[in-house]
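Interim report, section 4.2 (structural modelling).
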Amino acid sequence: MTSATSDDTGVGVASWEVAAREFAAWRAGDRAALDRLVRLLTPVLWHLVRAYGLDRESAEDVVQTTWLALVRNVDSVRDPQAVLRWTTTTARREAWRTARAGKRVDVAEPQTLDAALPPVGGPDTTVLAGRTARTLWRHIAELSERCQRLLRVIAFEDRPDYASLSSELGIAVGSIGPTRGRCLDKLRGLLAADPEWSDQRD
Amino acid sequence: MTDDLTLLRAVHDMYDTLDPPPVDLADRVLFTLELEDLEFELMRLREADQLVGARGPETASTVTFSAESLTVMVTVSDSGPQRRRIDGWIAPGGALRVELRTPRGVHETQADADGRFAFAEVPSGLVQIMIHPTTGATVPLHRPVVTPPVQL
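Predicted structure of the assembly:
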């Protein structure tokens, strides 16, 4: 691994360096480091798993199962730097497997779409206003299922393992990059054609 | 034109805003990881007749968990201020040893031959039910089965 945290995507995904440090500390006997690792990565795993269309209960099951797998198979993670990729890949694989088994796939709106308005007014400019988020949600829903999944994965996982992603998306490894480009272009086009979006972003 | 990074950041923030993880998901994961012996089967939540963790007076909710070899149906009702009663039913029925983990300790009971068990007074908060292989029970379990933690 050559670059630090998320230099290549800049989307604020969890840092493999922080994850590696906490994992190493936990392995060295610091129990609180496991606590920090779980709090750091659980939201990431949640979004990756939800990208596979699982309903919220199944998604929770998969996140729990992933962490249990890590703790049970801790010796298989020889290099602490690999812990982020190990957990994200395990979670995606389990989510994909569960979704393929046809269990409780949720194609509906998120439960929170109307209930949870975004945090109000904070100085954090990364938090989208609710209306903006809904506009974006609506246009993403117009994309193909493959695009939706790919965009959600790469929005939360820096450098996902392309081999596993390839089989989960049903496209060749070499096609992931171009597909990603096409999905983003399509979304950009939809947003550009929506006056509501331009109003909000200006 | 929005560049790729800006767009992906917007996608990231949008999902965080509209489909966030349950606020206590990490707490529940850690609750399970605190178990000393991780040799168990994690049950899956099958169905809930209302949101798990729904609060307020007069609430009763039923949740069903399943493992490979058995299911357990759990009904939670109020038994006083900040107190809950848990009635459980294991199927297939059998006199299995049942533990209830709470942040303040472990309660233990034994199901009857029909698989029914109860915990009368449970403080609200995270709980987790563990069903153990039990000598003499008609249901053979190879290892304990454990529910994911739920908020009472």
